Amino acid sequence: xxxxxxxxxxxxxxxxxxxxxxxxxxxxxxxxxxxxxxxxxxxxxxxxxxxxxxxxxxxxxxxxxxxxxxxxxxxxxxxxxxxxxxxxxxxxxxxxxxxxxxxxxxxxxxxxxxxxxxxxxxxxxxxxxxxxxxxxxxxxxxxxxxxxxxxxxxxxxxxxxxxxxxxxxxxxxxxxxxxxxxxxxxxxxxxxxxxxxxxxxxxxxxxxxxxxxxxxxxxxxxxxxxxxxxxxxxxxxxxxxxxxxxxxxxxxx
Length: 253
Fold this sequence. Notes:
With 253 residues, the chain is α+β, with helices and mostly antiparallel strands. A hairpin with a 2-residue loop joins β4 and β5.
């Protein structure tokens, strides 16, 4: 089972999202937004300002991975995410919509990043998003405005980051379909994770507001992999983690 966790977390890390938990509580209660029912996975990062800095230094013993081995590929993305963390956002949500496999080019993970908006850090947040875009695109981003949607464009047409400004949330995504689907769920036009027995089971078992929580539907990567929840926390005696494979009868759509 541990191998399933490593495979799915490496899938997430390939897009630049891998985090380590801290032992102190995040500022303010975690607000859980409605999540699309068909996600490949999602990650909840509490107190990202601490967790992102720790990733560069701490050996991931619970996963038998060394953060230094991931540094070369993940560092540019961490640079951008640390700018978001520096705004004081107490929590980050990363939604993984799916994996696009292409025979003649590297695969692409479709994701959305959710950050709570706050008037006192709005200017910082806008600047941080621009830095995140340039880290992800590996080039200066060109800006286009389309109502509440801002497009940050890279050198290639496939290199587009969407920034959707809502009253309470900022949605940052590399997938137009993904962010539109997320907004459809929030508007009640599409099913959410809350409609699934598997999600309700995870909510009973785990505190999403503590440390880092990862959900993955391994079946979308490899049929033999399970649907699972995983939590990683730091305790006074070291790292503590829990891996929970969901029963197959709960994993039905």
